[in-house]
Amino acid sequence: MNYHRTLKSAVVAMAIAMPLGWGGIALAQDAVNLRMTIWSANEAHLKLFNEIAAGFTKDRPNVKVTYESLPFDTYTTALTTQIAGGNAPDMAWIFETAAYDFVNSGALYPLTDTLKAAKGYNLEELSATAAERWSKDGKLYAYPFSTSPFAMFVNNDAIKAAGAKTPAELIAAGQWTWDNAIATASAVGQSGKGGLIVRDFNYQIWQNLASVWNGWGASPWSADGKTCTMTEKPMVDALTFIHEAIFKKKAIPGPGENVDFFAGNAAMTITQISRASLLPKDKPFSWDLVPLPKGPAGEYSLIGQAGIGVMQAGKNAKTAAEFVAYMTNPENSAKLSQFFPSARKSLLNAEVLKKTNPLLSQEQIDKVVISGIATGKVIPGHTGFAQIQQAVRSGLDAVWRPDADIPGTLQKICGQIGPFLKR
Amino acid sequence: MVVAQDHAIPEGRSSSPFWTIARRDSLAGVLFIAPQLIGISIFVLIPLGLVFWYSLHEWNVLANTFTYTGAQNYRMLIEDTNLLEVLGATAIFSSGLVVFNLSLALLLAVLLNQKLAGITIFRTLFFSPVVVSLVAWTIVWGFLLQKNGGINGLLQVFGIEGPNWLREETTAMISVIVVQVFKNVGLNMILFLAALQGVPNELYEAARIDGAPRFKQFRRITLPLISPTILLTSIITIVGSLQVFAQIAVLTQGGPGLSTTVLVYYLYQQAFQFHFFGYGSTLSILLFVIVAVLTFAQWQMRKRIVFYES
Questions:
Q1: Do B167 and A80 touch (CB under 8 A)?
Q2: Is residue B77 part of a domain?
Q3: DSSP E strands, chain B
Q4: pLDDT, mean of residues B129-146
Q5: Whole-angstrom Cα distance, residue A301 to residue A292?
Q6: CA A49, CA B266: separation in Å to the nearest integer?
Q7: CA angle B75, B78, B82 (to 5 degrees)
Q8: Does B125 share its domain with B185?
Q9: Which of A160, A168, B73, B219 makes a 20 to 30 Å CA pair with B249?
Q10: How far is the C-alpha of A339 from the C-alpha of A306, rounded, in Å?
Q11: CB proximity A384 to B under 8 Å
């Protein structure tokens, strides 16, 4: 009797427990952990990203998103090492210079269908020029979430103390040209402070000099990327101008000289507008933000980009693409644009940008941000960029000397990178 | 009689027991070295085999392709136009480092091998950079060596305009060598100090009685007796110099031009920056061969230059 009762109880217990158990297993199987590598460790950025991730998890309780901050300087190296080690993230930020490598290699999951299918996404409003570098055969492989124009931050106090004309005065007089900008920088440079700093260039990241040489219509290689154009007149003229500004006019700090604009030690710096957050709060100086000066080839602007891609190798590529669609939908793009200017047309208006960039005036937003994003060329990039970057950096070291033979050096550089460009 | 019974061979068995004393001893020996052997296999031998295997392939990490290319990467090694310059920079760095490091270490050891009050403070002072973090040490030197950095500031006090240390080919290489020597000279200094203190005093006394001057005593007594330590420190320093990376990465990134691009840094660039893991592995094999040949040559040389080796 007892035996039968025990047997019955066991059967009933199993009947109850088994579906629960299967349910548990099913739930565990459905649980998806997504990891995104990023190069920012900024607390405010991470707070916003976590809020967006929490919003996604609210709709999809089985999905958890985490962010892994990798060091900025070695970001792409760390990312590819993770991929080589079989530990690829589900999603990754990608620099504009590395975009061609990632897009052309097939490492990324195509996003177009997922983004188009997302409710209210409106992919059409993403500007075509912004998406160009991140697309292949009509498909978008990474979403350019940050499209940030380069502009000139100005320390009016330092310029006035040196008795030079401020960029605002030059703009008002219609004289905001590279010649006059360097004259101002030279006056400050010779007064003991730094003149003009191309931020992050540091005689290594030469692609940032596009913020100057684009004014001459110069480019390191042809539009199809196959031919080196560094020996052509615009590039020779632009680099000769920069060389004179460094070594003759003392308008740009020379190699090995460290000057920080945001500490108030220089007249001007070319950088992206997101660096406005570095302006000093304790010892503020009178600052301004102006467009890049006009070069011999006319007015121009330059933009830096960052994309989010989904790794094809990831187990949950489809879910990761859905998260990217959520993270970059119009609502979240508006939130992100306080740090990362969006390339969505609906967000490129003075009203939205004023809210997200409280430090900037209406005029600065109109002239620098909106116009910059609308007309700017993206920083140079190429397939196999790291190798090309290194070869050009190494070659340009011969230019950063007082007695440089600029045309001869550029000839040598073209000889070095020519075979890499043809690959 | 009892002993004979205990070890009596059982009926039907003609051979001795398997676990003889010799076999037991062998097993114990193998068990003792097993942890080290397993460690070496996992962390040295298998990776070495894998690196050789990778060197025969083209590995595109992004496209996730791994294609057998045979000797292609080795052909590339021969045709690499930068390699000669890289090997030249490596040779200059290594020879400069070894000569400067060993001479300075020996000089410091001789100076600090005195029975003076407070000498331990000086010994500690010279040894302390060895325990400082390499990257932190290099970053600080990076600031000091800037054109408007601390060293040129100091020179300016004396009316000297210092060079742009890290931006000129000759001074960049000298700077990297000096930074590395100052970091590690304390280690060799301690080894030399220990060796110097092992030289018997009676030999110097006898030499003094015979009227040998101080330099002759050093050349004829000290140097021969500390020659095993000279060999040891030179091997450690040469092998260490071939593995230099952080200093180059922080101070010069291989520039100006390729003047400070040593083999390890070049290997890192090829594998991790340009994503040519196959070619990077081939360069690793080249580095391995260079280190092996140099170490072997030094051991061979010991027969000629090392005296009184126990």
A1: no
A2: no
A3: 57-60, 65-68
A4: 94
A5: 7
A6: 37
A7: 125
A8: yes
A9: B73
A10: 12
A11: yes
Classify residue B49: in a domain, yes or no.
no
Partner residue facing B274 (CB), from A387, A394, A400: A387
Based on the domain organization, do B108 and B254 belong to the same domain?
A: yes
Q: Whole-prediction pTM value?
A: 0.84
Q: Quick one: how far is CA B167 from the chain centroid? A: 27
Please indicate whether, in this complex, the C-beta atoms of B64 and A390 are within 8 angstroms of each other.
no
Give me the residue from A102, A255, A395 closest to B147, CB to CB.
Answer: A255
Chain A residue with Cα closest to B273: A77
Dist. CA A109–CA B199, nearest whole Å: 70
| B51, amino acid identity | V
Output the average pLDDT for chain A. Answer: 90
**Interface pTM (ipTM) of the complex?**
0.81
For residue B288, being part of any structural domain is answered with yes
Residue type, B232: L
A367 DSSP 8-state letter: I
CATH code, domain with B135: 1.10.3720.10
Pair (B182, B232) in one structural domain:
yes
Residues B135 and B32 in one domain: no
For residue A100, give the chain B residue with the closest CA.
Answer: B62
Distance, CA of B235 to CA of B95 (rounded, Å): 12
A136 in reach of chain B (CB within 8 A): no
Q: Which residues of B103-133 are buried (b: 16+ CB within 10 A; e: fewer)?
A: ebbbebbeebbeeeeeeeeebeebbebbeee
Mean pLDDT in chain B?
90
Give a yes or no: residue B71 inside a domain: no
Q: Are A398 and A411 in contact (CB under 8 A)?
A: no
Find the DSSP H helices in A253-370.
317-327, 330-336, 350-356, 362-364
**Does residue B96 sit in the same domain as residue B209?**
yes
Inter-chain CB proximity B167 and A81 less than 8 Å: no
The tokens describing A249, both together, are 């006019």
d(CA B189, CA B175): 21
Domains of chain A from N-terminus onward: 32-148+304-377 (3.40.190.10), 153-303+381-422 (3.40.190.10)
Which residues of chain A neighbour B146 with C-beta distances below 8 Å? 256-258
The residue to which tokens 């700017």 are assigned: A376
B35 and B103 housed in the same domain: no
Instruction: Give dist(CA B101, CA B255) in Å, integer.
Output: 23
Total domains in chain B come to 2
pLDDT for residue A274? 76
- B-chain residues within 8 Å CB-CB of A395? 257
Neighbours of A301 (CB within 10 A): 20
First to last CA, chain A: 84
Is A204 near chain B, with CB under 8 Å? yes
Lowest mean pLDDT among A133-142, A350-359, B63-72: A350-359
Phi/psi class of residue B239: alpha, beta or left (left: φ > 0; alpha: ψ in -120 to 50)? alpha
Domain containing B29 equals 14-44
Could you report the per-residue pLDDT of A75-99, keeping only the tens digit for each? 999 999 999 888 999 999 999 999 9
Q: Are residues B38 and B120 in the same domain?
A: no
Q: Could you say which of B167, B261, B273 has the minimum Cβ distance to residue A386?
A: B273
Same domain assignment for residues B107 and B18: no
Distance separating alpha carbons of residues A335 and A355, to the nearest angstrom? 10
Q: What letter represents residue A205's amino acid?
A: I
Residue A32 belongs to what H/E stretch? strand A32-38
User: Residue B185 corresponds to which tokens in the numbers above?
Assistant: 């000279």
